[in-house]
């Protein structure tokens, strides 16, 4: 830059010197110097005007040719223009490759901008969401009017994918997941999960139907076994087999009841319960059941410093609370302490069960809520568990916007905590 300035100043000095010498020869050296300055300024303004007109016309074609400092500026702009054109071509080629690759995907991809307006989508998304080329620039919620999706779009705290029927085709099930980036921009991934959804529904129906059909024969078997045991007429060698059959019948009945409850929790709508349940009363009722199961073998206490009212389904909440408390009794050694605690803070309401049992290795904790998952299969069978208790707890929490947290140290006990958001609590003054 300094070299350009020096060069341009040298050109001006040469012009000024020439006109000054001419002025001395005519006796008007001041007029010659003034004329040199005027010509130089006119030339500068002419070059500036040509360059400004080129910029105003959108830099169409190469920069205007010139010499001196303006020629160098024109050359720099020309080189920048060529470099920009090459980079633009590369970006266009890359964009075409991205569009071609995304067009081949079976998943739908929708790019959103300006608070949810359609910017671009691949053919799969257009087919699943019934989008046409003239829909560009329209808000996506104009085509997906499901209230759950509208909440999903506007509430950035909602995590994970959303499942809902396809627009105009309730027989088709879509899964949508939003990834936000930049400023007011987002990418929506759309998947057709109709087959998986139908298979899952078939599994649920099968489990529910089989469990329901098993209840009648189990009831008959249990009735006859109870009659044989209570009659006192059964032969002596039959006493032990009859007792084992009765025990296994009760276990199967408990398993069937848990399966039916799980099927109902999975198929019914979430957040349907609007009952008002006093948390401390529920905790005390669950503690009474735990003491009955313990038979005095454990020290069971309830800590409820601040009562609150939970809104939801009383039966489901009782099942979730009781499963944690009864598990603590089953897996705690005799003489161990079990604490049921309820408290409220700014994050909502919380219920926890702390025991001094065998504890759980951290590697098992992520899978505890899976159906029939057992940390120790032998101990679970001895305790009479069905392997469905924590799966039921998980689904109850899903229906009540709650979360499960597990903290455990092998050999030192476990703490299972249920967390409910403030929206599920009601002020005691409102009850």
Automatic annotation (TrEMBL):
<dbReference type="InterPro" id="IPR005467">
    <property type="entry name" value="His_kinase_dom"/>
</dbReference>
<keyword id="KW-0902">Two-component regulatory system</keyword>
<dbReference type="InterPro" id="IPR003594">
    <property type="entry name" value="HATPase_dom"/>
</dbReference>
<dbReference type="GO" id="GO:0004721">
    <property type="term" value="F:phosphoprotein phosphatase activity"/>
</dbReference>
<keyword id="KW-0812">Transmembrane</keyword>
<keyword id="KW-0418">Kinase</keyword>
<keyword id="KW-1133">Transmembrane helix</keyword>
<feature type="domain" description="Histidine kinase">
    <location>
        <begin position="209"/>
        <end position="424"/>
    </location>
</feature>
<dbReference type="GO" id="GO:0005524">
    <property type="term" value="F:ATP binding"/>
</dbReference>
<dbReference type="Pfam" id="PF00512">
    <property type="entry name" value="HisKA"/>
</dbReference>
<dbReference type="InterPro" id="IPR014310">
    <property type="entry name" value="Sig_transdc_His_kinase_PhoR"/>
</dbReference>
<dbReference type="GO" id="GO:0000155">
    <property type="term" value="F:phosphorelay sensor kinase activity"/>
</dbReference>
<keyword id="KW-0813">Transport</keyword>
<dbReference type="GO" id="GO:0016036">
    <property type="term" value="P:cellular response to phosphate starvation"/>
</dbReference>
<dbReference type="InterPro" id="IPR003661">
    <property type="entry name" value="HisK_dim/P_dom"/>
</dbReference>
<dbReference type="InterPro" id="IPR035965">
    <property type="entry name" value="PAS-like_dom_sf"/>
</dbReference>
<keyword id="KW-0597">Phosphoprotein</keyword>
<dbReference type="InterPro" id="IPR004358">
    <property type="entry name" value="Sig_transdc_His_kin-like_C"/>
</dbReference>
<keyword id="KW-0808">Transferase</keyword>
<dbReference type="InterPro" id="IPR036890">
    <property type="entry name" value="HATPase_C_sf"/>
</dbReference>
<keyword id="KW-1003">Cell membrane</keyword>
<protein>
    <recommendedName>
        <fullName>histidine kinase</fullName>
        <ecNumber>2.7.13.3</ecNumber>
    </recommendedName>
</protein>
<dbReference type="Pfam" id="PF02518">
    <property type="entry name" value="HATPase_c"/>
</dbReference>
<dbReference type="Pfam" id="PF11808">
    <property type="entry name" value="PhoR"/>
</dbReference>
<keyword id="KW-0067">ATP-binding</keyword>
<dbReference type="InterPro" id="IPR021766">
    <property type="entry name" value="PhoR_N"/>
</dbReference>
<dbReference type="InterPro" id="IPR050351">
    <property type="entry name" value="BphY/WalK/GraS-like"/>
</dbReference>
<feature type="transmembrane region" description="Helical">
    <location>
        <begin position="12"/>
        <end position="43"/>
    </location>
</feature>
<keyword id="KW-0472">Membrane</keyword>
<dbReference type="InterPro" id="IPR036097">
    <property type="entry name" value="HisK_dim/P_sf"/>
</dbReference>
<keyword id="KW-0547">Nucleotide-binding</keyword>
<dbReference type="GO" id="GO:0005886">
    <property type="term" value="C:plasma membrane"/>
</dbReference>
């Amino acid at each position: 830059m300094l070299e350009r300035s020096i060069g341009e100043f040298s050109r001006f000095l040469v012009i000024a010197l020439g006109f000054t010498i001419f002025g001395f020869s005519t006796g008007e050296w001041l007029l010659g110097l003034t004329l040199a300055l005027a010509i130089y300024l006119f030339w500068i303004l002419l070059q500036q005007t040509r360059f400004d007109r080129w910029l105003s016309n959108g830099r169409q074609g190469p920069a205007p040719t010139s010499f001196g400092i303006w020629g160098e500026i024109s050359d720099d702009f020309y080189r920048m223009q060529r470099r920009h054109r090459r980079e633009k071509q590369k970006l266009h080629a890359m964009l075409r490759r991205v569009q071609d690759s995304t067009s081949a995907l079976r998943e739908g991809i929708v790019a959103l901008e300006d608070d949810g307006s359609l910017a671009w989508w691949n053919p799969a998304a257009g087919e699943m969401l019934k989008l046409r080329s003239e829909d560009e620039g329209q808000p996506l919620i104009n085509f997906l009017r499901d209230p759950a999706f509208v909440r999903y779009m506007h509430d950035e705290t909602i995590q994970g994918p959303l499942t809902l029927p396809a627009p105009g085709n309730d027989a088709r099930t879509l899964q949508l997941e939003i990834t936000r980036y930049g400023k007011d921009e987002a990418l929506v991934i759309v998947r057709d999960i109709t087959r998986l959804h139908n298979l899952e529904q078939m599994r649920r129906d099968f489990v529910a139907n089989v469990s329901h059909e098993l209840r009648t024969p189990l009831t008959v078997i249990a009735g006859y076994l109870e009659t044989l045991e209570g009659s006192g007429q059964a032969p002596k060698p039959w006493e032990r087999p009859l007792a084992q059959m009765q025990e296994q019948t009760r276990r199967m009945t408990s398993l069937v009841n848990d399966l039916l409850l799980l099927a109902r929790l999975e198929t019914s709508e979430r957040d349907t319960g609007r009952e008002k349940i006093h948390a401390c009363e529920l905790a005390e009722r669950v503690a009474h059941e735990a003491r009955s199961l313990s038979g005095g073998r454990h020290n069971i206490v309830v800590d409820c410093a601040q009562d609150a009212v939970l809104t939801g389904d009383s039966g489901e909440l009782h099942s979730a609370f009781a499963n944690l408390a009864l598990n603590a009794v089953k897996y705690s050694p005799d003489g161990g302490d079990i604490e049921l605690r309820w408290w409220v803070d700014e994050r909502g309401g919380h219920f926890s069960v702390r025991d001094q049992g065998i504890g759980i290795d951290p590697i098992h904790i992520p899978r505890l809520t899976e159906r029939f998952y057992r940390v120790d299969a032998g101990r679970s069978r001895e305790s009479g568990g069905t392997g469905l208790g924590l799966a039921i707890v998980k689904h109850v929490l899903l229906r009540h916007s709650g979360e499960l947290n597990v903290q455990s140290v092998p050999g030192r006990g476990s703490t299972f905590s249920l967390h409910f958001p403030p929206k599920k609590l009601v002020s005691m003054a409102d009850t």
